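Reopening this ticket.

The earlier resolution said the output was attached, but the attachment link was broken on my side. Pasting everything inline this time so it's all in one place.
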Amino acid sequence: MKMPTDRFDSIRDFYDNEYYANVGHGLRLPWHSRRIGQRLGDMSGCQVLDVACGTGEWLGFFHKQGAAVAGIDLSQKAIDVCRKRFPEGDFRCGPAEILPFADARFDLVTCMGSLEHFLDKPGALTEMRRVAKPDAAFLILVPNEGFLTRRLGFYRGTQQVKAKEEVLELGRWNELFQQSGLIVLDRWRDLHPLSWHWILRGNPLVWPMRALQALALTTWPVKWQYQVYHYCKAAHE
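Inline output:
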């Protein structure tokens, strides 16, 4: 008898067999990500959860500060890497919509460039709030439908479009956060294209255009950015 198909099966298959097909130990966070992490302050002694943690690049940054790290990802391959990198960490394989962690456990909950791929975004955000302490911080990186290059028709999305990718305008993201009980305190640019690794990719003929775009992101207003970090706190009645 054929077993019922789990609603996450096709997405899990994409990440295990394509996105993480050649998975290995994650690399050190690039300079722009480290600068964002530093804005959060010293995480020494804190409990940090990364939702859709991948192979643990972000958790590596907080672990070096002395944080106790935990993560969840739909890909078993990615979780296996995390468990090898951080043997003392708490890593689970599963969907973000059902977090197998206790209430009010974490001082910081992050979700970096993954919320747009979730089947139930409000459900996942509600779960993130549940497992966070009342005064916890949230750092959520999401793509922006108002990205100028996208509006001009030069950008079609990431490789993960194959699985699922729903991009919202910043105002709609803000509404989603508010409906899930989070207040956005600040928004920060994602400058990951400002690197040779990103610029010198693909056809050399487009490298000059990619370099110009990377530089432009440093001056474009937030509403034109490709991705935006949202620094949030839980709303309290």
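Reporter confirms the inline version is readable. The chain is about 30% helix and 20% strand. Confidence is low (pLDDT under 50) at residues 1-5.
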